[in-house]
Write a structure and sequence with these properties.
The protein contains twelve helices and ten strands. With 324 residues, the chain is an alpha/beta fold. The radius of gyration is 19 Å and the shape is globular.
Length: 324
């Protein structure tokens, strides 16, 4: 593994700033602690640089901040990132951002309390529904899913709320349902399930077929039994991948150093969240096609040994058994 030690020396003069920022998300989600874990790894390796995780509105905000140079790194859902790179959706022109590596799959949590009279996505009609914070990947995803299934915003009372605001609204009765998109074991969902009789609203096979046909990046995922208190049987939902992003013009040696250091410290990150077990070169190549920073892509495709996963099977299949 001598090549890894050599890569770790590459960044001796690549970055002159004293502070680097990782744009993450809400403290109630996984972006913030995951970003904090990465910041800890890089700061320990480079004590001359203060690397910190920044609370933000998540994917869309993070993409814009990285593109404008307001943050050096960020975390984003793959769907929002691809739109940004291609200048589609909310982006009037291509954004100068790229992915360094894949992090973990996001799980769509469509949530209601058991006494809300909601058993399916179609039951959201006429209800007060939080779709996520403005500019967040959660909002992009939830609105896209609802529209694909024929529920336009005039068919329910749409509210743009953060994770904490969504769970508070469900608790105090000002909301009927809400979406929280994040890794399995999301803190906001865990807390809600411990204090209220909560249920995850399933996506039917027919609904998943419609979604995957229109949005191939969205795949089915079974939330395992007992992943959250009250989840007594597997619940089918939607998953999509998250990525660590940087400006497309980041120097190659800097991109390689950051990527190598992160992957070599995967075990440490798994102490922050078990979702880090999915952070592998193979997943980066599989799910990051067309969006990777060139230096990272060359690293993953190199013929010499790459940093290996210290976790379980890197690809989450439908019905994956372990909760996070």
């Amino acid at each position: 593994m001598r090549w890894i030690a050599l890569l770790a020396l590459l960044w001796s003069s690549a970055y002159a700033a004293e502070t680097m920022s990782i744009a993450t998300g809400s403290p109630a989600g996984l972006y913030y602690p995951f970003g904090g874990g990465l910041a800890s790894i890089w700061s320990k390796a480079r004590p001359d640089i203060n690397i910190k995780a920044e609370v933000t509105g998540a994917s869309v905000v993070n993409i814009i901040q990285v593109a404008k140079g307001e943050s050096e790194l960020g975390i984003s859902q793959g769907d929002a990132l691809r739109e940004a790179i291609n200048g589609e959706g909310k982006y009037p022109y291509p954004m100068p951002v790229r992915a360094l590596f894949a992090l973990y799959p996001n799980i769509v949590h469509a949530i209601a309390l058991e006494d809300a009279g909601i058993a399916s996505i179609d039951d959201f009609k006429g209800k007060r529904v939080s779709v996520g914070a403005p500019g967040s990947g959660t909002a992009i995803t939830s609105l896209r899913l609802l529209e694909t299934l024929g529920l336009t915003t005039d068919m329910y009372d749409v509210q743009y709320l953060s994770y904490t605001e969504t769970t508070d609204g469900l608790k105090n009765g000002t909301l009927d349902a809400g979406f929280l998109v994040g890794g399995l074991g999301l803190a906001a969902v865990v807390e809600l399930a411990l204090t209220r009789d909560m249920m995850l609203i399933p996506f039917s096979d027919e609904e998943m077929q419609k979604i995957s046909a229109q949005w191939p990046a969205y795949t089915p995922f079974d939330v395992p039994t007992n992943s959250y208190q009250g989840v007594k049987e597997p619940v089918q939902t939607v998953s999509l991948w998250n990525f660590l992003i940087v400006h497309k013009d980041m120097p190659d040696d800097e991109a390689v150093w950051l990527t190598t250091k992160a992957l070599l410290n995967q075990k440490f990150l798994m102490g922050v969240t078990k979702s880090a077990r999915f952070m592998t070169p193979d997943n980066s190549l599989k799910y990051g096609q067309g969006i990777l920073h060139p230096a990272a892509e060359r690293l993953f495709n190199a013929p010499f040994p790459r940093p290996k996963s210290t976790g379980a099977d890197a690809t989450p299949a439908k019905g994956m058994g372990e909760g996070l």
